[in-house]
Write a structure and sequence with these properties.
The chain contains seven helices and no strands. It is mainly α. It has a single domain, classed as AhpD-like. It is globular, with a radius of gyration of 15 Å.
Length: 149
């Protein structure tokens, strides 16, 4: 597959994206958890470049193959903490927004709020939103897997 456009053509977009990531990473959430959130949203959306790059970034942040291979089935896998499970549930609910989906229920929100303060929740929500943003762009312009950012 070949990309339909060069995604680095607009430096203003690149600058804006850097600011978004700065805000995400200033929220006090462990980088490994942010990478798991990114990976899970990208798996749901079938975004191969984000899955590829996200897995690469997670490994650079010390994530294990065991956890990376099972994040798709995090509910059944014994490798995730309660905090991570709450973030992954929030990720799935905020990502799956098709017609009729319940979205982020009070139960899911309350479970996440039990583990994260408002600044951290804001960072996680922004990370989910930015991931979904890039998943949709990559699908539209056919960005191939194999690139890391």
């Amino acid at each position: 597959m070949q990309a339909r456009i060069d995604d680095s053509a607009n430096p203003d977009v690149t600058a804006a994206v850097r600011l978004l990531y700065k805000a995400i990473h200033s929220g006090g959430v462990d980088g490994r958890l942010l990478e798991l959130v990114h990976l899970r949203a990208s798996q749901i959306n079938g975004c191969s470049p984000c899955i590829f790059a996200g897995t690469h970034a997670a490994k650079k942040n010390g994530e294990t193959d065991e956890r990376l291979h099972t994040v798709v089935a995090w509910r059944e896998a014994p490798f995730f903490s309660d905090e991570e499970r709450a973030a992954l549930a929030l990720t799935e609910a905020a990502t799956r927004i098709q017609d009729g989906a319940p979205g982020v229920t009070d139960e899911i929100w309350d479970a996440a709020a039990d583990h994260f303060d408002e600044k951290q929740l804001s960072a996680i929500i922004l990370n989910i939103a930015v991931t979904n943003f890039f998943n949709r762009i990559n699908r539209a312009v056919r960005t191939p897997a194999g690139t890391t950012w």
